[in-house]
Write a sequence for this structure.
């Protein structure tokens, strides 16, 4: 909670009030809405639900209900001004800390709600970071570059074999007490052997797709994706533009040459799917992705993370907004999965071919609107987190989802192919 709040403040204190109340894209809320929404959710679930205390600002519940007010409408609402939103954040946090310190909760009864709220703020921190990327104006954020790929990374095999067989997908919560409802319950899944890209697809590889006319050939595109491509005119990843023979990108207010060795970023599911078809491959299913990331064939164990059960450290993955871009493909060898794949956690969210739905035996908690209302509505699953994802909101079972047209998220992909005939 402390690190999330530090990030929330750093993403908002760097801008004047006018930019906090402005809507930088109809896809996103004004940043001041995110601030007060974070506080409102913390008040509802920690102060009132877990603590049994009276409401501080009950009149704000409707105003900051994400399901009542679509993002495009939020600038027209009577939102708290920045100074008042900051005061509300501080007031709620003081009450929440009192609840957590109360001996009456020594049995751990509010711990799931605490974890849910800690993850909620980290998720909004990533959303606010995406708003910064959409924002036009001078750069206000800075961070050191991520670690370079180790020597010999260019000699990594293009793909690794993920052996077929059964494994336990998802979790029952014993090893992941903060797991959200859509990650549960654990259930047996059988996956056939397949070959998976060792690293996410890079900018250089994606430029080959562009140069070969990939955006202009309907053979590679899902029919709805082709209609979307014609309607929007997209011809490159988000924030890219060409200057002569050079591809440039805009990244948090700075214009720079697109680094060829980095995983491609800001591509929609339709673009990822088209690239995979062009390459003679496909996007992995969600079950395939999780087997590659978690299953250890040597021990038949299902790990929490690709590298093991211990929480992420800086040598494992690019998480937590320590860096504001992906690391080069092949980085973080200490975070490799048993199959040899790298960067399955962090750097870029990875599109899968799967629709977002509940696992067998799914039970919604603590409210239906967290996951269930999105099932069967055309959302595609993303896995693995990005450089903008907080460590507590990223694990081998964590599921993200978005519409197949979306490009504002920090999403890339890797491809796969079957290793045995069907």
């Amino acid at each position: 909670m402390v690190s999330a709040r530090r990030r929330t403040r750093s993403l908002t204190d760097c801008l004047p009030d006018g930019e906090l109340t402005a809507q930088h894209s109809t896809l996103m809320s004004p940043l001041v809405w995110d601030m007060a929404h974070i506080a409102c959710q913390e008040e509802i679930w920690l102060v009132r639900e877990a603590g049994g205390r009276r409401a501080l600002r009950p009149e704000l519940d409707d105003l900051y209900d994400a399901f009542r007010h679509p993002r495009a409408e939020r600038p027209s609402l009577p939102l708290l001004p920045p100074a008042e939103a900051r005061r509300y954040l501080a007031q709620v946090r003081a009450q929440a800390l009192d609840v957590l310190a109360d001996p009456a909760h020594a049995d751990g009864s509010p711990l799931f709600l605490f974890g849910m709220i800690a993850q909620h703020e980290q998720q909004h921190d990533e959303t606010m970071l995406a708003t910064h990327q959409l924002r036009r104006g001078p750069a206000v954020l800075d961070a050191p570059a991520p670690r370079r790929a180790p020597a010999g990374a260019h000699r990594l095999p293009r793909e690794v074999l993920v052996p077929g067989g059964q494994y336990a997908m998802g979790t029952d919560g014993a090893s992941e007490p903060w797991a959200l409802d859509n990650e549960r319950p654990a259930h047996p899944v059988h996956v056939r052997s397949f070959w998976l890209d060792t690293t996410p697809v890079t900018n250089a590889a994606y430029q080959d797709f562009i140069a070969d006319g990939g955006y202009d050939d309907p053979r590679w595109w899902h029919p709805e994706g082709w209609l979307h491509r014609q309607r929007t005119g997209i011809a490159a990843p988000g924030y890219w533009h060409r200057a002569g023979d050079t591809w440039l990108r805009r990244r948090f207010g700075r214009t720079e040459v697109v680094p060829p060795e980095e995983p491609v970023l800001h591509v929609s599911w339709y673009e990822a799917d088209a690239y995979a078809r062009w390459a003679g491959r496909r996007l992995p299913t969600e079950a395939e992705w999780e087997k590659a990331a978690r299953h250890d064939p040597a021990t038949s164990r299902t790990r929490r993370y690709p590298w093991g059960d211990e929480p992420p450290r800086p040598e494992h993955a690019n998480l937590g907004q320590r860096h504001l871009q992906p690391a080069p493909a092949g980085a973080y060898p200490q975070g490799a999965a048993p199959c040899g794949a790298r960067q399955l956690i962090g750097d870029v969210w990875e599109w899968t071919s799967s629709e977002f739905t509940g696992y067998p035996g799914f039970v919604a908690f603590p409210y239906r609107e967290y996951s269930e209302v999105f099932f069967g509505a055309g959302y595609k699953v993303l896995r693995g987190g990005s450089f903008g994802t907080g460590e507590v909101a990223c694990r081998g079972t964590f599921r993200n989802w978005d519409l197949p047209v979306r490009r504002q998220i920090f999403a890339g992909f890797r491809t796969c192919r079957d290793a045995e005939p069907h």
Remarks:
- Residues 2-134 form a domain with the Four Helix Bundle (Hemerythrin (Met), subunit A) fold (CATH 1.20.120).
- The longest strand covers residues 349-355.
- The mean pLDDT is 95.
- The two ends are 47 Å apart (CA to CA).
